[in-house]
Amino acid sequence: MKTIRGLRVPGLQDDVSPAGFRHLPVPERVVLPLEFSLGKVNPVVEPGQQIRAGEYVGRDENQMIPPVRASVSGVVTEITPWPSADGQKLLSVVIEANGDEEVVRLPLNGNGESKPESLLRRIAEAGIREVDAYAWPLAVRLAQPSLTPPILLPFAPALRKPVRYLIINGMDRQPGVSVRRNAILAEEKELLESVPLLKQITAAETTLITIYKDQKLPADFERKVSSLGAELLKCPRTYPLALKQGLIPYVTGEKLPGPNDDARSVGAVMLDVTTAQRIAAACKEGYPAVETSVEIIEPARGATTHVKVREGTLLEDLLAQLPDRPQNPAKTIIGGPFLGYAQYQFRIPLTQQTDSVVFQSKDELTHFVNAPCMNCGFCVRHCPMGLMPGDLSRLCEYGHFEAAEKAGLFHCIECGICSYVCPAQRPMVQLLRFGKSEMLAVQEAS
Amino acid sequence: MSVAREFTKGLWDEIPPFRLVLGLCPTLAVTTAAQNGMGMGLATTFVLLGSNVLISLLRNVIPKKVRIAAYIVVIASFVVIVELSMQAYFYPLYKVLGIFIPLIVVNCIILGRAEAFASKNKLLPSIADGLGIGLGFTLSLTFLGAVRELIGAGTLFGRYVMWESFQPLSIMVKAPGAFVCLGLILCLMNWIGAMQKRRQG
Amino acid sequence: MRDLIKMVVVLTVICACSALVLSFANQATREQREYQVLKYVKEPSIKAVLTGYDNDPIKDRVTLKMGTDKKGKPIRKNIFPAKKGGKVIALAYGSAATGYHGLIEVMVGIDINGKITGVSIMTHTETPGLGARVVEPAFTGQFKGLVLSDALKVKKDGGKIDSVSGATFSSRGVVTAVRQALESFSKIKKEVIS
Amino acid sequence: MSEYLLLLVSAVFVNNIILARYLGNCPFLGVSNRLDTAVGMSMAVVFVITLASAATWIVQTYVLTPFDLEYLQTIAFILIIATLVQLVEMFLQKSIPTLYRALGIFLPLITTNCAVLGVAVLAIQNEYGFVKTIFFAFVSSVGYGLALILLTGIRERLNVAPIPVHLKGTSIGLITVGLLALAFLGFAGMVH
Amino acid sequence: MKHPELTVSVSPHIHSGYTVARMMYENAGALIPVALAGWFFFGWPALKILALSAGTALLVEWGWEKLFGPPANIRDGSALLTGLLLGCILTTEVPWWIPILGSLVAITVGRHAFGGMGNHPFSSVLVGWAFLEISYKEILETYPLAEPRFLLEASEFFSDPPLIAMKDDLESILEVPWSELFFGNVPGTLGTVCVLAILLGGAYLLYRRIITWHIPLSFIFSAWLFALIMWQVDPEVYAPPTFHILSGWMMFGAFFLATEKGTAPVTPLGMIFYGIGCGVLTIIIRTWGIYTEGVPFAILLMNGATPLLDRIKPGTAGRSR
Ligand SMILES: Cc1cc2nc3c(=O)[nH]c(=O)nc-3n(C[C@H](O)[C@H](O)[C@H](O)COP(=O)(O)O)c2cc1C
Ligand SMILES: Cc1cc2nc3c(=O)[nH]c(=O)nc-3n(C[C@H](O)[C@H](O)[C@H](O)COP(=O)(O)O)c2cc1C
Ligand SMILES: Cc1cc2nc3c(=O)[nH]c(=O)nc-3n(C[C@H](O)[C@H](O)[C@H](O)COP(=O)(O)O)c2cc1C
Ligand SMILES: Cc1cc2nc3c(=O)[nH]c(=O)nc-3n(C[C@H](O)[C@H](O)[C@H](O)CO)c2cc1C
Ligand code: SF4
Ligand code: SF4
Ligand code: SF4
Ligand code: SF4
Ligand code: FES
Fold first, then answer.
1. What span, in angstroms and rounded, lies between the C-alpha atoms of C174 and C171?
2. Is E135 at the interface with chain B, CB within 8 A?
3. ipTM
4. Are both A325 and A255 inside the same structural domain?
């Protein structure tokens, strides 16, 4: 095992009490983006068309990108670019809901139901999307080499490697967020059901559920897990150990070769507990992924609420449904304090990739200033990727982008630790992103 | 450009080594006192003037291919003359300047002027150029020497001028002082240059 | 071909002219340079070891051939006579011996009777603060008035010279140089006076 | 042996040719902006200084001194050095093109470098023998290289620092060299 | 719903709250025991010197900020720290203008000429000190006797600082009990004599994670080891290793000077090499150099090598692209 450098933030990493999920009623309207980091799907509906929850809204002809399914029943009103949490405008389908709670189940594929091939097909069809960004769709990542479509192998030799480790990650991605820990407590059954399914699909040698040391767990959890042929791996509360760049080396002892490489290149598959739970729901119940669990965090009041909403619910509508809505936030962040995107408005759809919304009060606002680096080395001490963020940021600041690239700019995972610890309060991540974008522009131009 | 302009440019616009950053070694090494700086400057001026004159006169005779070799011979001859006469008539200065007298031959300024100016110009402008640059160099070295001598030893041209209880900051006459002092003067020149530019618009 | 000839001719002419001028300059300044070197290098030492003269010992110097070096070339030695009213009253000349770090060169002044009138260190490379202290008058002053028959040795070796503390080697070097100077005095005196 | 060790300490640290003897400043400040250039320049300097000192020593000992031509030292040495650099350049270009590509651009720069002539003259002034001259030239130029590489490291960092505008460039470069020389004063007195 | 006033910025959205100013003031706080020890052994003049050097540093910083603006910043405490550190390495015998001149040089040439905190390649404190030392060696090296206020008796062993005693007469230091050096009952510069006080301050720095163990430990240990080797070679000529690390500026240098932000490497391996360089050079200069104390020059020299040491990058996760 290889421990990574990183950060411990005691206050923010404390355990939350098992709150369970508050299920909110079906919203009046949902907005479902059709564009993703992997690519886009084409709409298969038209404005004015009636649709039921669980039916296709968009599909990829090549069947590589998981389809988008309606999360509510109602009428498609528009197909239009809509602002997303990360500040882009994505082509999205807007559905006016009719209040029907029913969801159309996935069709059963005859009697080969429990064969790995059909399970994989089901996962691909269920429209499951992950919070972490991965290079390949879930169904591709999970498939053992014999199940991988041969057409993919020339492009992705890593997929030829057998899966040594299957890692179901129960640790939260960043300090201050407790979605996954809550999910283990609230939906233990689905999690345990997913283990045999995933083992079967991946044919993994070792199956691990990673949790924080001393994390609150359901009663008798460890025994149940080991009776399924999996292990519970208790990890230190170091951020960003829960991200793939941290967890893969920690578990396998091998570093990921490049910043964009998948865990499969070292023979590992890693997925969230929430993803595992969606897989179980899809395979066992035929339930498509139309819901998302979101944590509403208000640090100033020490308040945190876990809600389950239909995918595509607008933040605005969610807030309207909450009895105890945040008071005058000065900053609203979708995606957690370290990795999230600050919003300038509330008409943003919450998707499966949304795990949390943070509302900061005025006093909590951070002020990054354009001060020079004092070379204190705090960022170097903490950077999980072993970079020298201080140097990188100076190089980017002064326009030496090529030198920055040589010094490992593109290995930066934008975890935000360097900004967090920098006593000079430099806008580190912003500088590094600026460098990356300039460098990419140069490469594109040439 | 007029002959007068050729002369005056060396005194400010292209004054070495402050504007024309060349010939740094003698500048740093011999400016422990104003007098030494001045001596070095005058010796360099002599060589510069002599070589400019000769090279200007011979510019149509010397074939292109061997011009650098020819210049070096001319310059080195003048250097040797300076060397011999300083040894004969200014022995203490000769001792202080030491190895930097023969090194005039590689002073980047002299070959630079020969190549860039004297080889392309008539006699009179070449004389003006050599004198101007040489005097500029002399002024610079004298100034730097004076500053270092004043702070580092409390004297100017060998005469004590500071108040009685003054304790000289002797680092100024040692190597670190040389570099730092020249660095600060270059900064001053940059500043003055920027001021001039701003005034011009 | 024309070009080549021209190149060679021009360069040769320049070099030849240069050589001519320089050898002339060399000849013209030779005397003066020698005088200057002696004046600045030797005169302070000469002044320190000789007193009561009214001539310029450097101008009146006598150059003697003192044996030959390893390659068989004669070694020339400058002797500086101090005169009063035209009469030689003392001689000063250099001598050298090894100290701790290479040669220590001393100027020794000896009056016409073979008595030391003064000793001065011209060059040395001894350690500052240790051996370098042999230049101090406290050390060199001890030689004044001594003659060859006196025990010209450091006390450690049974002589009467106090060595600089912590620098026996350097002290020994100086004493040796002085002794050698005295030893050659009678021969030198004869040659200079004749 | 210990004599050579002392000479090494002296030439590299105590009497460093750039930081204590002020030789070769112009290229020193000119090429100290990027580390790879500085390394190339250092190698070229070591190569040329060592070779030139050997050549000038031979000429001094077997031509100038026996024929009482010492006064021609300056002119003879500079011609030897200029010719030598030319020859080296031609030789490298023909025979060792890889080395030529690495050092080639620096060679002309070095011809008018005080350090080359300076070290050659110093070796004569110190009355070293042939082997000692070569050793002296080698360690002196290594000292030059060391100082050059240290300075370059610092200047690379200063390129991404908010230097006051009028101090930028040669000005702050000189101040940095000054402080480096200040640090090197710590070696003072270790050997003559 | 009406659009609220929302702040937009790039991630991350939180900060540790640990700022430069806090670090500097905590670092200055770590000097409290050191200053107290200075007062204890050398009396009120110790505080006068500290006040003069710190006051000048603040004044110059203020002036620079007024004239040229940021990055000069009088409120961040860095000038205060520079001034205090400079005061600590002076004796109480220096005339009043020495700390003033030193602070002036440290803040201008040492610091702001290079673009301020974090960008100056050489420790600004030591640049200020070295300007003084090169120019006024006699003034800086006139040492007061240690006269403890209470508890301890004035030292019977030292009338000169230990390192000078070592050079003059090696035997004389052999019978001195180490405790004498540890408590600092010796002549010397006001902040560097008391090892106990320095260790207290150093422990605080380590506890607050302002510094890491790498530099102090490798510095002191390599000096000890190198001195041990030499001592083994000839105990008649070379001082015992423990004497070396307890005397002079060794401790102060290792904890407070060598660790100056911006002038020391930031990677673990780089820091260790840097510490070793400092330790070995210190003993070399102490033994063979003409300066009594090797620590400041050793640190300045290694400052010069810092950018190269920083090229030893921590293992990047993954191969380079
Ligand atoms: C920046 C500064 C530098 C000073 N430098 C010196 C100095 O180099 N030597 C000195 O004797 N006094 C120096 N002084 C101090 C005054 O000259 C002081 O009045 C003087 O030392 C008084 O000494 P006295 O009583 O012996 O005359 C300096 C003062 C300042 C403010
Ligand atoms: C850097 C250095 C310089 C030295 N310089 C001298 C010197 O100038 N003269 C000398 O006699 N010994 C010198 N020594 C030699 C040693 O001190 C040696 O031990 C000494 O000559 C013999 O000691 P003794 O004569 O007290 O028995 C030097 C040693 C070192 C390391
Ligand atoms: C660094 C150092 C430098 C020395 N320099 C000298 C020197 O210049 N001349 C000398 O005679 N001895 C020098 N010595 C030699 C020793 O001091 C040695 O003990 C001395 O020559 C013995 O002489 P003493 O009996 O007068 O003490 C030096 C020793 C050391 C360690
Ligand atoms: C760089 C500098 C050096 C100074 N040196 C001295 C000095 O050597 N002696 C002195 O009396 N004053 C010195 N002063 C300070 C000033 O002249 C002082 O106020 C008067 O000398 C008062 O006696 C110096 C000031 C500066 C800025
Ligand atoms: S944001 Fe990038 S550079 Fe900064 S700590 Fe994280 S990985 Fe390192
Ligand atoms: S933490 Fe900030 S000030 Fe410190 S080295 Fe990193 S970027 Fe520079
Ligand atoms: S450069 Fe900075 S501000 Fe601009 S897009 Fe990138 S991260 Fe955002
Ligand atoms: S660069 Fe800074 S100020 Fe400009 S838009 Fe981005 S966050 Fe705002
Ligand atoms: S003057 Fe020495 S290199 Fe230019």
1. 5
2. yes
3. 0.80
4. no
